[in-house]
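ok so for the tutorial part 2 we go from a plain amino acid sequence to predicted structure tokens. step 1 is just haveing the sequence, like this:
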Amino acid sequence: MSPTNYDAIVVGGGHNGLTCAGYLARAGQRVLVLERRPIVGGAVCTEEVIPGYKIDVGSSAHIMIHLTPVIRDLELEKHGLEYIDMDPFAFYPLPDGSGSISFYRDFAKTYESIARISAHDAEAYRRFVDFWRPINEGVFEAFLNPPSMTGLFGGVAKGQILSGQLKDTVETVRRLFSSYGQLIAETFESEAMRAAMTWLAAQSGPPPDELGAGDFFGWHSMMHTSGAMHPKGGSGMLTQAMARSLEAAGGTVRLNAPVKRILIRGNRAVGVELEDGEKIQARTVISNAHVVTTLLKMVGEENLPSEMVRRIQQIRIGNGFGMTVRCAASALPDYIAAPSGGHPHESHHGLQLLCPTMNYVRDAFTDYTCGMPSTNPAVIAMTFSAIDPVVAPPGKHTVFLWAQYFPYTLANGTQWSNIREEVADNILEVLYRYAPNMRGAIIDRFIQTPLDLEQRLALINGNVMHVEMSLDQMFFFRPLPELASYRTPVRGLYLTGASTHPGGGVFAASGYNTARVVLGDQRRKKMLWTGAGLATAAAGAWVAKRRLEEV
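step 2 — the prediction. this is what the tokens look like for a chain of 551 residues:
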């Protein structure tokens, strides 16, 4: 093995790994990021998989990262990151074409849009934001710290105090532990608002009727604070800027450098071995890879307690989640509910929610639980070329379709290789129902089934959240209570990424938190050794003094 070259090695160049590396480099550490692919970014990456078009191969809408200090602290705008507002951040066309609802960053404009469909639901939306926003401001404080019971419930209590809701603690707890389907049905009376909010809430994974998922509905109240944005040039421009920022701070990024295993000596991580046999030594290793890949493959069961191996094997990864069809097109959707002639229109700025009813989402999930692709999938359309012309050739457009729900392992021995084109056609049919002009406007398409997501992005079972985002795998339970602090049983080995608190999405909070834990542990270790050294020196001086006195 080569001499120690680095203070820290980060395995995986996803946005959380790059965030962690960036903070460590700014603290004076010698940092190396090892990325297995020829491009950084992981699931926040843009590639020209269709010639002439900049196609996001993972996440596209950037929301929660704007509630963190990461963009400012890492000076990403100085390194080429330029965000474009997605405003309205969501657009819901009624399935009969009679109208639409637009969700703007500005609350008053959103209220007015909802009121055109239902005056009752506009007022209900006001009460929804008033109730949930202060609570989630407290929850987001908990997201930006290692998970703890005091941090989570303290944040919720703080939000209640700020909003004057402390007397409603029982009701708050009920809502947090309820299903978002139940809460949405209680809150809104129009099918349009019920469908729109259900489909937004479903983006984190849990289905509408899962208990303990209430805040997947509630946190959308924060959209009026964060808004939603897309980087100019594609989603991957975030991670490209992170890589440049890291290198400017003295860090190093190596591409085409897949890690075979994490080297362990005396229950301590001492470096990594690449698949080509090269060994690189470091004092600290942080893995941005999937928790199961990290611990059971790179560390190895032989280096872990048998009980922990058993518990890691029982983490619920899930059987897939969603899939995408990313298209090059000759026009933009001309929605029946918001005619635009196929030209850029505010309906194209954000997430276009193609979901006629709340039960439509439930039915799609029912198909999934039977091991089959959803017959009538709920779809989110994203048309970033309308706000960012550089992602497509002149006069052409990108149309990305994310749909749920799709199992990784299909029933009856069905294989994705045999049905991927047919399922992609079915997803496009949903778009055609809302925007008939798109039939015949698709030039080319890039399909990502759950199997494709696993093979390209190392997302086990195609779950873009790494592990399911159910209550018993969130906060101080994510991915397991004994791993929730980002530390592992192997000294000097840490976890970061979507497998850890606070979970998936373009957030960067996990990378931010992990860097603080690593630096804090190093400071405490230094203080311990410094203190021990001082104590030893003092004891030696005392012994020497006594001996002199005895002489």
